[in-house]
Amino acid sequence: MASKDIRNHRMSDEVYQENFSDIKPPLSFYQSRLEAGRCLYCHDAPCISACPTGINIPSFIHRIADQNVDGAAQVILEENILGGSCARVCPTEVLCEQACVRNHPPECKPVMIGRLQRFAIDHRQTAAHPFIRAQTTGRSVAVVGAGPAGLACAHKLARLGHDITVFDAHSKPGGLNEYGIAAYKLVEDYAQKEIRFIFEIGGITLEAGSRINLGHQLADLSVQFDAVFLGIGLESAKSLGLPDEPSEGVEEALGAIKTLRQTKNLAELPVASRVVVIGGGNTAIDIACQMRRLGAEEVTLAYRRGIQQMSATHHEQLFAKENGVRIIPWMKPTGFESKAGQLRGVRFVRTAEAPTGELIETGEQITMTADRAYKAIGQTITADSFAYGKLALSKNGKIRVNDQFRTSISNVWAGGDCVDKGEDLTVHAVQHGKLAAQAIHQFLQPPEVQVEQGDGRP
To answer: What are phi and psi of 121, to 5 degrees?
Structure first.
């Protein structure tokens, strides 16, 4: 990360460009062939099982080694139509690369699967879309939410010949890939480039800026369309439950990331001198690192449990430390201090873990100086989305679905962060959308060709 001018908290355009450039530079053709040559092309490759979308990793890497880049890209896209963004944002170090047999002694260094996947997608030469849309079936599907789950579902169903209408509340599609990922992970408007590629299959109509209030409109959608897929994500930020939480200078991390990603001139953004981030996940790491790269002098990330309990990967934690972010565990926020309407600090109580595993407060009070605080403690489904009571929710407040991602409504499916299955990762959302599309396609078949799936209710 480039150094900043601490006199005015502003940096030159060149420094901003450097700080928010691609943190994982792409492999060259020469590097990709060398790296592909390290793969052992295992017969029962553990990396395939570790990939949530089931990409045949040895197969695409072997094609790279044979200089068949188009063939490598085809293998990837067959299982993951968002393979380009997943190669950039997914924690491959704890998924496919962690399972790589090269991790074992004496080498202890996995094949760079994620970077090879990016290479294959980025260097695909064929101009035509890799898939041909089947003959139109005349069946229509509504997809609510144009994030990774919704896009994967829409593409798969369009490929099978169905007519898809995608509704999204934002002016641009993409979900978290467009609005919630650190700017240095997806650069140069990549999310929109990938979406344009996805839509090339045909049969997909986008209704951007169309917020669907499911409490009032889900019943109508389920009648107007033959099937509905919900990929609505988690739009509402969780609350700390503190009385002075709405203080000036206390912001939601995802909202700040969204603003940063949509800002063309980073010098226009306000930069605090001392920032405190509350949370322990990847979003907390993203906002903390981006504030440092914007010019904040001090950034502290406080988490209520220990380092080992943080949901942010070890790789992300190391990246934060490399960016000068201080991580302090065992800190539970208790309030905010302001003076003349300006945030001055965040109050914490030190915590510990009881022998039972329960989090307890030690009584030790600590105040961290801050003129900006960001909350990154997770999201939940918008409360008013489900006044339509037929849609069952799980105990954790997410949409309850069965193994085919079917909800409690007979022609409504759901996937991504809004359902109670798997981790909230882009690659898992893609797999949800893909599997739901297969189930929806089966549902839309004439009765005489349908395979018995039970009543499909979770």
So the answer is: -70, -45
13-31 confidence digits (pLDDT tens): 889 999 999 998 899 999 9
Say if residues 291 and 318 touch (Cβ distance below 8 Å): no
Backbone angles phi, psi at 282, to 5 degrees: -65, -30
Homologous superfamily of the 140-235+381-449 domain (CATH): FAD/NAD(P)-binding domain (3.50.50.60)
Closest CA to 37 of 57, 60, 61: 61
- Domain 22-122 CATH (choose: 1.10.1060.10, 3.40.140.10, 1.20.1290.10, 3.40.50.300): 1.10.1060.10
Residue 66: Cβ within 10 Å count: 12
Q: How far apart are CA 373 and CA 96, in angstroms?
A: 35
* CA distances in angstroms from 294 to 61, 98, 297, listed in the order given: 37, 32, 9
Rounded to an integer, what is the distance from CA 89 to the centroid of its chain? 7
Q: What is the rounded CA–CA span in Å between residue 429 and residue 415? A: 6
Query: pTM of the entire structure?
Result: 0.92
Closest CA to 373 of 314, 333, 316: 333
Domain 237-378 has CATH 3.10.20.310: no
Model confidence pLDDT, tens digit, residues 123-156: 999 888 899 999 999 999 999 999 999 999 999 9
| Structure confidence by residue, pLDDT tens digits, 241-263 | 998 888 889 999 999 999 999 99
Nearest Cα residue to 186 out of 261, 116, 242, 241 = 261
Query: DSSP secondary-structure letter at 28?
Result: P
Q: 217 is written with which tokens? A: 């409109």
DSSP 236-251: EEPP---TTTT-TTEE
> Please, are residues 383 and 374 in contact by the beta-carbon 8 Å criterion?
no
Encoded tokens for 75: 């293998």
CATH topology of 22-122 equal to that of 237-378? no
Domain ranges of the chain: 22-122, 140-235+381-449, 237-378
* DSSP for residue 134: P
